[in-house]
Automatic annotation (TrEMBL):
The lineage of its organism: Eukaryota, Viridiplantae, Streptophyta, Embryophyta, Tracheophyta. Residues 430-452 are annotated as: Disordered. InterPro entries: ACR1-12, ACT-like_dom_sf, ACT_dom. Residues 435-447 have a biased composition (Gly residues). PROSITE patterns: ACT. This is ACT domain-containing protein ACR.
Length: 472
């Protein structure tokens, strides 16, 4: 198949080479500026253009994509280039309703966090009402769990925490290829402070390990693990890292849970000998956070993206990356190519949850998560993905569920749930064939879902990012 060995850029960016390789007289001046960012609402009729110029450094693409993702932007197109010592990105973005970004506070924040004074993101405090993925845990202890998944496991985890007087303020749970990864933010249910008592943490860790060990008894590999963190983290990236380290990409989907052919991503890797790149092409159904998931995985696999073009016209997304390994080598063996393809497929699939989503809102109280997950378990439901958040006095949770055999939930079960918990909390039930959690900031997804795309629905809550109350 013929291939152009250089990424195509929209004609409106024909001056890109001058920006990437500025005149010598400007080089010294530009090298003293860590970031230059502009927000353009004039050039494009339907989207805002965010242009980022910077000195090149490892991980810079993921850093920028992560910030835009955490702002819940829909990225419809992007052009990326970072040859030599200079990095240049152009993103076409909209809000979740498909409108340009015109709010002055949002624009000021973009210019602050990506501009010359942005630097270390952990020093930037977002305005009220926005969720940002990098944060200080503050008065919360982060618990990371990974092991083999089974029906009712999340209920058992939350019951142990409730019995040990830990309150779950926020959590994110992913399952993929029969593995489960959780990041939970807990505090003492009396003091609402982080728990640093070694004895209490040791008891908690032992009990959690016991139930994870029980899941592994008939497994053919891997063991459950528990760890604690008091530092900085980005929940979504951490979940990707945990499942990647657990080698979930080597597992195989059960027959009844295998993706339909129309949902299976098409990934190819070819060589661009002229420029010395490997070219990774991804074509799949568009959804929120798709760009983040792919860039995150390539970065964590130690690959550098030198050029890329991203487009999400219509219901499908097309992405092309020109990459090399950090050591400068391209993917020159079939084994390397197969591994990258498997890892990217896994990264795309981890955020997809098919079936029914249950959105619950209630006044927060100690043990609420344990109660809700117990009800789900008693009604024969298995949680495939979950987001738990506490904002103010309100707990807002979303659970993607299937029955214990992995099949869609029937109407009778949904009605039984409404009768059992509907009088104590607000419950919204959605059918989500092929859905990823809501939010946005991928290469599309959110706005299109609201316009009626079938197969990749969006919820009204997103909890993968971090919450205002954690941000000091």
């Amino acid at each position: 198949m013929a291939r152009v060995c250089w990424p195509y850029f929209d004609p409106e960016y024909e001056n890109m080479s001058n920006r990437i390789n500025p005149p010598r007289c400007l080089s010294k001046f530009l090298n003293e500026i860590p970031f230059m960012v502009s927000v353009d609402n004039v050039t494009c009729q339907n989207s805002t253009l965010i242009k980022v110029d910077s000195m090149n450094k490892p991980g810079i693409l993921l850093e920028v994509v992560q910030i835009l993702t955490d702002l819940d932007f829909i990225i419809t197109k992007a052009y990326i280039s970072s040859d030599g010592g200079w990095f240049m990105d152009v993103f076409h973005v909209t809000d979740q309703q498909g409108n340009k970004i015109t709010d002055t506070r949002t624009i000021d924040y973009i210019e602050k966090v990506l501009g010359p004074k942005g630097g270390a993101k952990e020093q930037v405090t977002p305005w009220p009402g926005k969720r940002v993925g990098v944060h200080s845990i503050g008065d919360h202890t982060a618990i990371e769990l990974i092991g083999r998944d089974r029906p009712g496991l999340l209920s058992e985890i939350s019951a142990i925490l409730a019995n040990l007087h830990f309150n779950v303020a926020a959590a994110e749970v992913w399952t993929h290829n029969r593995r489960i990864a959780c990041v939970l933010y807990v505090n003492d249910d009396t003091t609402s402070r982080a728990v640093d008592d070694p004895t209490r943490l040791s008891v908690m860790e032992e009990q959690l390990k016991n139930i994870l060990r029980g899941c592994e008894e008939d497994d053919d590999g891997g063991v459950g693990r528990t760890s604690f963190s008091m530092g900085f983290t980005h929940t979504d990236r951490r979940l990707h890292q945990m499942l990647f380290a657990d080698r979930d990409y080597e597992g195989s989907e059960k027959a009844d849970c295998a993706p339909a052919p129309t949902l299976k991503p098409q990934i190819t890797i070819e060589s661009c000998q002229e420029k010395g790149y490997s070219v990774v092409s991804v074509c799949c159904k568009d959804r929120a956070k798709l760009l983040f998931d792919i860039v995150c995985t390539l970065t964590d696999m130690q690959y550098v993206v030198f050029h890329a073009t991203i487009s999400s016209d219509g219901p499908n997304a097309s992405q092309e990356y020109y990459i090399r390994h950090m050591d400068g080598c391209i993917l020159d063996t079939e084994g390397e190519k197969e591994r990258v393809i498997k890892c990217l497929e896994a990264a795309i699939r981890r955020r997809i949850s098919e079936g029914v989503s249950l959105e619950l809102c209630a006044k927060d109280r100690v043990g609420l998560l344990s109660e809700v997950t117990r009800v789900l378990r008693e009604n024969g439901l298995s949680v495939t993905r979950a987001g738990v958040s506490t904002i103010g006095e309100q707990a807002m949770n979303v659970f993607y569920v299937r029955d214990a055999s992995g099949n869609p939930v029937d109407t009778k079960t949904v009605e039984a749930l409404r009768k059992e918990i509907g009088h104590r909390m607000l419950l919204n039930v959605k059918k989500t064939p092929g859905a990823g959690t809501g939010g946005g900031g991928g290469s599309g997804g959110g706005a299109k879902d609201q316009q009626g795309n079938k197969g990749w629905a969006k919820t009204s809550f997103f909890f993968g990012n971090l919450f205002d109350k954690f941000l000091a």
